[in-house]
Amino acid sequence: MLLTLWGKAHSWVSQQLVPDPPPTAPPGKLTEATNTILGWMKWGGLVGAVGALIAAGIMMAVGRRNRNNMAIEGAVSIPWVVAGLAVILGSASVVGFLLQ
After folding, report:
1. Which parts pass through the membrane (predicted)?
2. Which candidate, 77, 80, 83, 47, places its Cα nearest to that of 59?
3. Who is most buried in 11, 65, 70, 96, counting CB within 10 A?
4. DSSP tag of 16
5. Where are the alpha helices (DSSP H) in the chain?
6. In this predicted model, what pLDDT tens digit does every residue of 20-53 receive, in sequence order?
């Protein structure tokens, strides 16, 4: 029964009752402004990631003697910063992949 319902739903959805036009940029200078804002956001994210890596290094260096928790927190934060960099740098590719 479930497979029958799934088959009917799939055939109904595959008829594309709602049009799906490709994304197009609006006319005028809005495209340039959007690209500028996205570029600024990407630049800010990269600057923030560099600052976070520097802060993690400082925490590890200062926490080396008698402050083990600070050194551990600095070391644990590095994978999070790298993951954030991966999201920042790969965001356009991920969105493009998901929309195709």
Report:
1. 43-63, 75-99
2. 77
3. 70
4. -
5. 2-14, 30-62, 68-99
6. 677 788 888 888 888 899 999 999 999 999 999 9
